[in-house]
Amino acid sequence: MLGNITTLYPNSKQYPPLLSSLQSPPMLSVLGNIDALYKPTIAIIGSRKMSTYGSMVTKRLCKTLAGLNCATVAGLAVGIDLEAHITSATLQIPTIAVLGYGLGYLPKMHQYKHIKSILASGGCVVSTYTFASKPEKYKFVERNQVIAGLSCALVVVEAAIHSGTNHTVNFMLSLGRSVYAVPGSIFSATSRGTNSMIYDGATPLKDISELRINFENHTL
Predict the structure, then answer these.
(1) Strand 28-32 and strand 5-8: pairing?
(2) What is the spatial distance between Cα 127 and Cα 133, in angstroms, rounded to a whole number?
(3) Range list of β-strands (E), the chain
(4) Torsions phi, psi of 50, nearest 5?
(5) Is 219 contained in some domain?
(6) In what residue span(s) does the Smf/DprA SLOG domain sit (predicted)?
(7) What's the pTM?
(8) Do 31 and 131 meet the contact criterion of CB atoms below 8 Å apart?
(9) Whole-Å CA distances, 45 to 12, 88, 104, 166, 217
């Protein structure tokens, strides 16, 4: 493991205020800089089957946030989420990786090689599970609730029509927080989900600069 683990309990003064909004706030195990949990946070998530378009949008989104006092949040999954973490870390934007398994299982995952740069960005890795807990399908739904709980706003870059990302969107809406979706081609399977989200009421991100402008104007 790459450092000390901090345990944050729901009744602790150090517990992230945003996450306290959940009906049953979970205990957190945090590897890295807990200060990232108190910054204004924007979740950038999406398809594991990231397209060239999705990669380009994710990188541009992170670049437009560079220099702002914010942190990004994602689920460390291969695809859009991992791209958001890597780009944020490269730009020295603190990035928060939320796991669907225990911190002790992390070294077994392909994404482990990126953890050092995530921590070096001033970010952290968060889990609500016991140290050796293995990945299971239901845990990723619970992880998505934590991503929503930690985020002021959510941007879905790409998603299939029946994507698990829909769980995160629904959790955000239940908390009354902003959901942005990136429009894409009607011929792209990875944009059908985001296009559908826009149809259902998500805010279309028509220009990359909108996110920075809304952040600076406190209108996320």
Answers:
(1) antiparallel
(2) 10
(3) 5-8, 28-32, 41-45, 71-74, 95-98, 124-127, 153-156, 178-181, 203-204
(4) -65, 135
(5) no
(6) 8-212
(7) 0.96
(8) no
(9) 28, 13, 24, 11, 23
Alpha helices in 66-182 (DSSP H): 80-90, 115-120, 137-149, 165-174
Angle 165-174/189-199 helices, nearest 10 degrees? 20
Does 213 score more than 90 pLDDT? Answer: no
Residue among 213, 91, 108 nearest 153 (CA): 213
> Distance (Å, rounded) from C-alpha 88 to C-alpha 38?
17
- Supply the CATH number for residue 172's domain: 3.40.50.450
In the β-sheet with 124-127, what is the strand arrangement from edge to edge?
5-8, 28-32, 124-127, 95-98, 71-74, 41-45, 153-156, 178-181, 203-204
What per-residue confidence (pLDDT) applies to 64?
Answer: 95
Q: Is residue 220, in this structure, part of any structural domain at all?
A: no
Number of domains in the chain: 1
Residue 188 lies in a domain: yes
Under the banding of pLDDT at 50, 70 and 90, the label for residue 1 is low
In a domain, 218, yes or no: no
Instruction: Please check the confidence at residue 220 and state whether its pLDDT lies above 80.
Output: no
- Burial grade of 77 (CB within 10 A; 0-12, 13-18, 19 or more): buried
66 contacts 91 by C-beta, under 8 angstroms: yes
Domain housing 29:
5-212
The contacts of residue 220 (CB under 8 Å, 6+ apart) are 40, 42, 152, 153, 178, 211, 214
Distance CA 72, CA 96 (A): 6
